[in-house]
Amino acid sequence: MGRDILKYGVIAGLLAGGLMFLSFWATGGAMPHGILGMVLGYATMLVALSAVFVGIKHHRDATGGGVIRFWPAFGMGLAISFIASLFYVATWELVQATLIHDFAGSYAEAVLASQKAKGLDGAALAKLSAEMDAFKVQYADPMFRLPMTFTEIFPVGVLVSLVSALVLRNPRVLPAR
Fold first, then answer.
1. 91, 20 in Cβ contact below 8 A?
2. What does pTM read for this prediction?
3. Residue 144: which domain range?
4. 174 falls within a domain
5. Is residue 175 part of a domain?
6. What is the pLDDT, as a whole number, of residue 33?
């Protein structure tokens, strides 16, 4: 099981990290903020984390004789997701070092511009500006940034692991050939 976890975790991590890096590289480091950025980001995570399903199914068919119980399947999915999440975090650090040199500043500007466009002004805008300045300071600290980045993808991996374990515990779903 450990070999399958490592294999499919690396596959998922390379997909998640590779798709992220390619998307930022192709746009010259520009990134869409807001709903478009979230949809694109989470869609690529789901594509990459499909390796969780494939990994559990492969293990079920190759070593389990076409059968796997829920908890072992769920645990395997979590382990694959954990490895993929580590790759994702490492790639985000690489993207920041090479393509996006001031993510926090860019994000803060986008949030402030969005709120100005919605009509926010005066004291509320000043308060938001101060919060964004505090965010930039926090984001510069790796002990804040790394876990924050990890929590972007790992909950998606938990959900994919849960669904995969629920589906694949039934040996009639995509039976081994």
1. yes
2. 0.90
3. 2-168
4. no
5. no
6. 66
Domain membership of residue 84 (yes or no) is yes
Three-state SS annotation for the chain = CHHHHHHHHHHHHHHHHHHHHHHHHHCCCCCCCCHHHHHHHHHHHHHHHHHHHHHHHHHHHHCCCCCCCHHHHHHHHHHHHHHHHHHHHHHHHHHHHHCCCCHHHHHHHHHHHHHHHCCCCCHHHHHHHHHHHHHHHHHCCHHHHHHHHHHHHHHHHHHHHHHHHHHHCCCCCCCCC
Q: Give the chain's largest Cα–Cα span.
A: 67
Q: Which residue in 37, 19, 8, 148 sits closest to 95, CA to CA?
A: 19
From residue 126, give the alpha-carbon distance in Å to each of 104, 120, 123, 129, 175: 18, 10, 5, 5, 60
Task: State the helix-helix crossing angle for 35-62 and 70-98, rounded to 10 degrees.
Answer: 140
Q: What is the pLDDT of residues 89-109, one digit of tens each?
A: 999 999 999 988 888 998 899
In a domain, 173, yes or no: no
Q: What angle do CA 17, 19, 24 make, to 5 degrees?
A: 95
Mean pLDDT score, 130-147: 96
Domain count, the chain: 1
Of 2, 163, 29, the closest CA to residue 94 belongs to 29
Looking at residue 10, its pLDDT comes to 98
